[in-house]
Amino acid sequence: MSKSGYKTISMSESFSKITLLDCLPITIIHSDSLKKEVIKDIVIAIKSKYTKLEKFFQVSNVDVTIFVFADQLSLHIFACGSVQPSWMVGFGGDKKIMILDPSTAEQVGKTYQDMIKTVVHELVHVFSWHNNCHKLAIMTEGIAEHFAERYNYEDIKHLARNINNLSDKTFKLWLNAKTSEELGSRQGGYLAAYTIIEYIIRTYGAEKLKEYFFSKDVAPFENLNVEPSQFIEGWKNFLRETYL
Ligand SMILES: [Zn+2]
Fold it and tell me: What's the CATH code, domain 6-130?
């Protein structure tokens, strides 16, 4: 094993380098210009969560290829075939992650750390794809944010403060969003998704979350034996009691 835990090989095309991890089935495809420190931070982020994800999703040795793009337009065209909302800086699915070079974070209104956490977020999507897990956006995005640990206490406190101003319609839209785009276009949808996972773990336990996550595509409350309105009230109370 090399000292850094990975090695980089030169190629001749526009993605000019391949970085292979020594101990995990991960390949990073990137340009010559991607800084060494960025590769190192991506590798550290992946290594810190890979084993936890194997355990949670009950699969091992999931192959992942990570494509790192120098600009957002190329990322969007390569990943989706068209321009996407500007907040979309990463995509993850069938054995592939496509992300924007974290050192360009400021150009898209993000921080460098936020972008590194996006790599973990997308890695979770690769694992859930592999295991054909739950399809509701609030759950898949929530579990991705849970492992990415993107949100801090202040972010959640802000949501908790505004909780009474949010209509039942907003909660229902969050709960029923079918796609990540739909969830993300609702203000605070991803943050809400993060807190719903936190709420389920604290109230029903991590095992129940796992059991629920591997079950068929139903709304969160359907496997927890509560009424939808009761579930939403419990979630709101949890936010107020924990963060205010
Ligand atoms: Zn996502």
Answer: 3.40.30.160
